[in-house]
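hey m, so remember when u said the tokens were messed up on ur end? i reran from scratch. heres the input so u can diff it against urs
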Amino acid sequence: MSNKNTVFRPTPSETKADSVTRIVKGMIAADTSARQSKTERLRAARLDRDASAKTEAEAAPKKKPKKAPSKP
């Protein structure tokens, strides 16, 4: 028969499972934050690159298309 002390006390396997869960959740959170910061950094670099390419395209003089030689 069990008494109060054994009924409400977590078993060692539950304690180990809780420990593993906490560690894994921490690892997942670290990976998620690293992925989000990398995504933000790459997005900023892409937007900067696109903006500079757009200004370079606007600054470049427009070339007139060559006329095709007319056939006699």
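this time it looks ok to me. DSSP finds two helices and no strands in the chain. if urs says something different then somethings off w ur setup not the seq
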